[in-house]
Specification:
Number of domains: 1
Strand order of the largest sheet: 1-2-3
CATH superfamily: Response regulator
Number of strands: 3
Oligomer: single chain
Distance between the termini: 31 Å
Radius of gyration: 16 Å
Amino acid sequence: MTAVNGGESAIEALGQGRYDVMVLDLKMSGMDGMATLKEAKKLELFTETLILTGHATVDTALEAIKLVAYDYLTKPCDIDELVQKIQGASNKKDAVEKQEISKKIDRMVEGKGF
């Protein structure tokens, strides 16, 4: 587990390591949560994202869905619910990653390369 203080630090950490799930707050110093999510998606990693915020709006929830965030939770959040969402996001990430690996193997077997 890695904790960082802002969006820029989160993007830097994503570039240096492998993470199953990222939990983002919408309100962070520097790069906010939505901008961080957009930048993270550009990296094309197998990382699922949960948005956790005390500043929920319909617009930010819709934007998070469009950016394919795993879920959007409001503060205060029940810790058991948060743990359950993190586990669900991790399971989804594993399934997507396995599917992508399987596709690459199929292409190799068919002689099409990666």
